[in-house]
């Protein structure tokens, strides 16, 4: 049975926790309900084709259908090559395992610095729910006077959007918190993944040689548990150059002990994505530089400069910035002095 083979596939060690969760979800949501009860010997290519068509017909995206197909193909390959239950893999359809993703936004060097500044900028105001169920907005105008917006809003996000618009056009006052400035710059220019940058400790930063040692990464499971583990691949173990802003961050915000986290959440623990998005109001922040669909992951995979010139676009050449198949990752093709020189150029 496909369900049983799925359990076999997910058993071997080495899979990352989030990968295991994704595979289990795909099996439970998209594979087992349709094919879980089918005997392996009776599973045919036409059945697989019909299964995929039904997924797409029920509203499942092309990307998710491709993930489910690749997992099913891997499960059945186990039955062919290891368990010798099947003589041929029924997943013989060409193309459905390929994900066609839209081009991600790219940033110029000035846009990276603008984003780093805006991440710590927040408008001053408060939103209160009325007895009617609508929301009232009060904001601090330039000069320090608290004012009430004349309109009420159906939802809190609507009120938040107006508050940010008031700050953008200069009518609402803002406060500046630069604790996350180095977080953005390091992710962009040193090409660190979210889990890698949140796992950095003071002992990983060499302020004399101006380098950061990447040796671990945090993974947040679906249940909220934070797991400290290895980097995504062996190539992820690397030493990368840093920009000067990190040194000021260490002096101002990081505890002196060697194991102190370089970046923390509000309560001092590892930073969570949900907490980061809440503090920064990421959807509002990324609109100003002109990249409203920017994901944090785009900083590490798209924002490494191919030419260190102002106004140049990122995302062409990854040589020397740490790369695996999907983007900049392992800095083995260039020596440390050159990396440091690039850091100083930035």
Automatic annotation (TrEMBL):
Task: Respond yes or no to whether keyword DNA-binding is given for this record.
Answer: yes
Biological process per Gene Ontology, one example term: DNA integration
This protein's UniProt keywords = DNA recombination, DNA-binding
- The record places domain Core-binding (CB) at 1-80
A single GO molecular function, which one? Answer: DNA binding
PROSITE patterns per the UniProt record, alphabetical: CB
In terms of Gene3D superfamilies, this protein maps to: 1.10.150.130, Intergrase catalytic core
Name this polypeptide is given? Integrase-like protein
Q: Organism source for this protein?
A: Actinomadura pelletieri DSM 43383
Lineage of origin: Bacteria, Bacillati, Actinomycetota, Actinomycetes, Streptosporangiales
